[in-house]
Amino acid sequence: MTNQYSQSLVPYADRSFQACLFDMDGTLLTSIESAERVWSRWLRAHDLDPVVILPTIHGVQTIETITRLGIPRIDPRTEAAWIAREEAIDLDGVRAIEGAVEFVAGLPEDGWAIVTSATRVLAEARLAAAGLTAPPLFITAEDIANGKPAPDCYIEAARRLGKNVTQCAVFEDAPAGIEAGRAAGAAVVVITATHAHPVPTEYPQIRDYRGLTTIHSDGTMRLTSSR
Fold it and tell me: N or C: which end of the chain has fewer CB within 10 A?
């Protein structure tokens, strides 16, 4: 089921949240051009077809994708480190999702976190390239043994913020991240700015953050529209 909200409507307008937890790539910023350039070089070097593999790389940890490919005689950790270094250098085309800079600027410091499958170095490089301020709390690939779609990353982010994950809004774009938010018991908002095709989901979807803002009261926040 697809629940496509128009940009004039606000997801979960009748609910209050303790925090907003954001995936990064495809959710706060787009890095598809950079990631697919680097991955294409790596895949071709291993005689793999980028057309087949690229759709599977988004939203999960790099090392998990490499391990799943089962390439003989390689060290997945070494290969993942190479890809992360190359992605941190190749930042052409990395840019913020519309409205994201303004939206996160209005959030309290203890009321948001980024929860990404990227390494911290790569996450910081992409945020800077996109003009986004890094949050006080990052959960990155180094922090979590079980990556998305496991819920561990969102549960840990809420714990470190001192919040109840079931009272958090999770902003995601990819199936693995949506499933992680679901498994954590959070309220998921799907950002569709980078989607080429609709994502079947029961969760509310918005293209980007234009017009979206928050109202704060007694340590909680509500999503609302500035339009």
Answer: N
